[in-house]
Amino acid sequence: MKTIGVILARAGSKGLPDKCVLPLLGRPVISYTIGHALASRRLGDVVLTTDSQPAAALGVEAGILVVPRPAELATDSARVDAAVRHAVSWYEARTGEPADAVVILYGNIPVRAEGIIDRCIEHLERTGCSSVRTVAPVSKQHPDWIHRLDGDRMVQFRPNSIHRRQDLEPLYYHDGAVVAVTRASLFAAADSNDPHAFFGPDRRAVIQEPGDTVDIDTMIDLFQAEAILRYQREIRASQRQSTATTAVAAGVK
Question: Is 96 helix (H, G, I), strand (E, B) or coil?
């Protein structure tokens, strides 16, 4: 199965303009997503679709294909699947190689679990489903602990008497890390008014932990991503030190 990666990066975010190229531990945010895509064993070519000149320059520097994103596909109301279809059509016309599946990666997500792209591709191929998305468990914002407000009067969203987290029904949200979809499902939705139609009729999930992904929409998200990346660096450094110490001790023996 030939699978290509499509990285999405828009310059015109209202919350954090050009957030995909904001500095994060000395690197632009989007460089992390590019790195995740290039580290995948199962992805073929990687395509970046963007209207951001700084992001495009980073894509060229990394050696991936850069698609100039049309203005009408770079607005805050433009549909993700339309931008991806444009990128896939551009890629196929340029290379003459049709894709069987597409992995959609958002350029404003610098934190992903190691190997998660390949896990999603493998799940898509193994199950023969229409799409695979990464999900994480809902915790404190669970529907059973959410209320509507009638003035200041609290009205349970779903009537219940649950007070222990362990008794909540397991529910999951799409964390944005990876969307893997067949080309057939992606293009079958071209004329649909449903923005979720491209996920297809058979939608599957790969479960992650809440801290495995950070989707940057605000400065707080950026600080959270920095904290997690710093922690990961410290863990890796500690592991390297432990390995080196063990090797030295073995040599002494």
Answer: coil
Dist CA 131 CA 4 (whole Å): 14
Cβ atoms of residues 23 and 32 within 8 Å: no
Length of the chain: 253
Side-chain-facing half-sphere of 245: CA atoms under 13 Å: 6
Cβ neighbours of residue 147 closer than 8 Å, sequence gap 6 or more: 154, 155, 156, 157
DSSP letter at 71 equals G
* pLDDT, tens digit, 9 for 90 and up, residues 26-77: 999 999 999 999 999 999 999 999 999 999 999 999 999 999 999 999 998 8
Residues ≥6 apart with Cβ < 8 Å to 9: 20, 30, 48, 49, 50, 52, 55, 106, 107, 108
Hey, what amino acid is at 131?
Answer: S
Backbone angles phi, psi at 224, to 5 degrees: -65, -45
Task: Please choose, from the candidates 233, 229, 174, the residue with its C-alpha nearest in 3D space to the C-alpha of residue 29.
Answer: 229
* pTM listed for this prediction: 0.90
> Exposed, middle or buried: residue 142 (CB in 10 Å: 0-12, 13-18, 19+)?
middle
Could you state, in order of their start, the residue ranges of all structural domains in the chain? 3-136+172-252
CATH code linked to domain 3-136+172-252: 3.90.550.10
Residue 185 tokens read as 């499902």
